[in-house]
Fold:
Amino acid sequence: MHRSPIKHCRNCGTIVVYRLPDDGDTKKRAICEACQTVHYENPLNVVGTVPHLDDRVLLCKRNIEPRKGKWTLPAGFMELGETTLQGAARETDEEAGAQFEMEALFSVLSVPRVGQVHLFYRARLLSEQFNPGHETMEARLFSEDQIPWDEIAFRTVRETLLRYFADRRLGQFQVHTVDID
Structure:
């Protein structure tokens, strides 16, 4: 995982040590020896949508790093205090400025290498008008044969799009779970 290890206790600021907790846990944790707080490091949730209209999906050209200038589905980190559905809707509004109706969960992709879980919902677009936010250079609809496959920003997006178009051809959507190394 690429995240930096915890260095200081979030409760009292003392430098932590990594060791097995005294409670029988089998994994080394960041432990504050001053206040005895055990700090758990958990994956981050990335939430987003597969916005669709007829046979097309909406992609956003990234205006931020990582992968600036590449195409992605509208998605981002889930915020505290929101559900996965609310977060996915917020990200779609912020990145694409789209009018849409949220639909069912579509894909859950585990990316343990970077400590993330990506969840994508289908979202039915209500309009072809988009008003993308500052994180997006351009928001555009693509049919499957128009997708810039070599310019897709993230493997999670590529895997989700491949499964979306396969399900669409079958006329039945399911929830996909994918592990990405």
